[in-house]
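Feature request, filed as a ticket because there's no other form

It would be nice if the structure record came with a short human-readable summary line next to the tokens. Right now we just get the raw output. Example of a typical job, pasted below so the devs can see what we mean:
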Amino acid sequence: MTAEPGGAEGGAGGFHSRGAGALLVVGDVITDVVARHRGPLAPGTDTAAAIRTVPGGAGANVACWAAHWGCPEVRLLGRVGAESAAWHERELVACGVRPRLVVDPRAPTGTVICLVDTGDAAERTFLTDSGASLRLDPGDWSDALLDGVARLHLSGYLLFSEPSRALVAAALRSARARGVPVSLDPASAGFLTRLGVDRFLRLVEGVDVLLPSRDEACLLTGLPDPADAAAKLSRHVPLVVAKQGADGALVARSGELCARVPAVPATPRDTTGAGDAFTGAFLAALLTGAGPEHAAREGCRAGARAVERVGGRPTAGE
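Raw output as currently delivered:
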């Protein structure tokens, strides 16, 4: 199953480029079940909620927001189950993304249940079944995937299983050999705790841009202040852009904090995918020649737009 003509199920060949400067995202494609409720859950009985099923996944969301924010060519490599492969492909294409979806012969598409409290902060809790998404492996990778690519972005969720860690290593080797810069979003403070900080920092050697959340930056450094954490992380990765939600973003490089970028005011309905929106817009801006601070401002704009809608992606054609 692939959106690319001539592609074969179970493997990854090259894309036919529409021109130089493409963004290739490698990451998770997930089915999100979003349940929006008000106030605390009522254990042992019913809690009224508005429930929707929408396409999601950090990697897929980043790709969609990058395309929405003007990146001229966005490609996505991911793995899904047969039961929803066609739906996910259609949704990605509708957002302007060129997907290569490897259909897993055994595992279903990953599913995340997003419990969103519709109070003022619209905070969310995730129940995650990664399914096929973390079964990407080096057999799904091909150096030809980088043909015409100006930047590679990796979802941090790929670091949380052995097969997809091996794919990350293969992709990083290929990118280094071709001089393609690589960005990575750590993805989950909870999963990072289980993986281990030292192991994570070893796995991301060779990454050019790291895009952690506030919690992830503090976890990865052991520092309570996010600005100090971003600065310290930028001694390991050349450019660190720490996403701060309602507090905007921090830009650090070479051990120094370079900029504090303010957030764009928004009335949140669902914060699912806000960080993915930031990352997608940030990468789109970099690819069109913006510097890191300006790109972070674009990321904040996209994050504000994302929290005002339900689900983690922009509306196709908006």
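Something like this underneath would help us a lot:
The chain has nine helices and 13 strands.
The longest helix spans residues 162-178.
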